[in-house]
Amino acid sequence: MNILVINCGSSSLKYQLLDMKEEQVLAKGLVERIGIEGSRIKHTTTGKDQVTIEEPMKDHKKALEMVLNALVDSEYGAIKSMDEIEAVGHRVVHGGEKFANSVIIDDEVMKAIRECIELAPLHNPPNIMGIEACKELMPNTPMVAVFDTAFHQTIPKANYMYPLPYELYEKYGIRKYGFHGTSHKYVSQRAAELLGRPIEELNIVTCHLGNGASVCAVQGGKSVETSMGFTPLEGLAMGTRSGDVDPAVILFIMEKEGLSFDEVNELLNKKSGVLGLSGISSDFRDLEEEAAKGNERALLALQLFCNRVKKYIGAYVALMCRIDALVFTAGIGENSPAVREHICNGLECINIKLDKELNQVRGKEARLNSDLTSTAIFVIPTNEELMIARETKELVEK
């Protein structure tokens, strides 16, 4: 079965075509600047050189038309006709409380996704545009929605509720939803495979550390707690997001600086995190380079980030009584030995013992300790596209 995976942003579109018989990527690409001057596709068919196609794209329908044309192109395509695409899996950021699993898309599902727009106003609208464009261009092809939030719908109520007046939850759905669910699900399942044990027997902590970052407690294959909350702002310090902050600080800043709601929202989401603390960059490679030169604020930003991750890991060990595996994934988690080492330093008291030599790995799957009596530590590159394709295949075959 060939499955096309679509991930739509407001002016971009990522895609992969996968042959699910062997779980092989046939082609992948990125569409940039949709609706903006300079629109282009960077398309790569496995075994062939990358091509860049520059052409005006006024909307997501035109972008998807060009993607499909690229996939069937006689020179640089991967398939002979669109009939070879048997299903499409769409990444949808927010499913609210309506979706605890991936679903075949129909009119009722579309209605429910639209009702979640107020929970993800920046993400769900372009996700919807991508689905609608695909339905128009491929009306007879099954479509599946895979939600970032769905994996976290198993979190117990005592963990996802906020200590606010209960009627605010009833009226507006104010609660923890969590994000990066597809990534946390994939790497926890892969960790169980690497350990050769049923995931139902395991307690795993997964650390998705990129420009956006979150930690998840996975017990028996189910999310039982995660660091992101009602929005992706809660939890860890991130590239530009503040993460956990005393709510009164926000009110204090608004009053002292005379900031509007939009301005303080911009401050917390785009000007804070390690960027705001260091005054240098949101890119951890830049911070590591500057810290090595003796820049104290760069070092402070790195230490604060790592300490926040460490605190969540400790909390989740307490929550589950023990952990069998600790997993690092995403851009920083996969590529920064220094960050992984700093996070694990001091966690020997809870049986997390990193091997510094084994830790010198970037961007590939590896175990970072050889002591079989301690918690297994892994680097596992995330593969959200494969997870989306697997869930799409399973639903369509049913």
UniProtKB/TrEMBL annotation:
Keywords annotated in UniProt: ATP-binding, Cytoplasm, Kinase, Magnesium, Metal-binding, Nucleotide-binding, Transferase
Gene Ontology molecular functions: acetate kinase activity; ATP binding; magnesium ion binding
One GO cellular component term noted in the UniProt record for this chain: cytoplasm
Site location (Transition state stabilizer): H180, R241
InterPro entries named among the record's database cross-references: Ac/propionate_kinase, Aliphatic_acid_kin_short-chain, Aliphatic_acid_kinase_CS, ATPase_NBD
Record text on cofactor binding: Mg(2+). Can also accept Mn(2+).
Location of the protein in the cell: Cytoplasm
Cofactor field: Mg(2+); Mn(2+)
Reactions the enzyme catalyzes: acetate + ATP = acetyl phosphate + ADP
UniProt-listed Enzyme Commission number(s): 2.7.2.1
Binding residue positions for substrate: R91
Record keyword Lipid metabolism present: no
NCBIfam families listed in its UniProt record: ackA
Summary of subunit composition and partner proteins: Homodimer.
Entry-linked HAMAP family: Acetate_kinase
Name of the protein in question: Acetate kinase
Species: Tepidimicrobium xylanilyticum
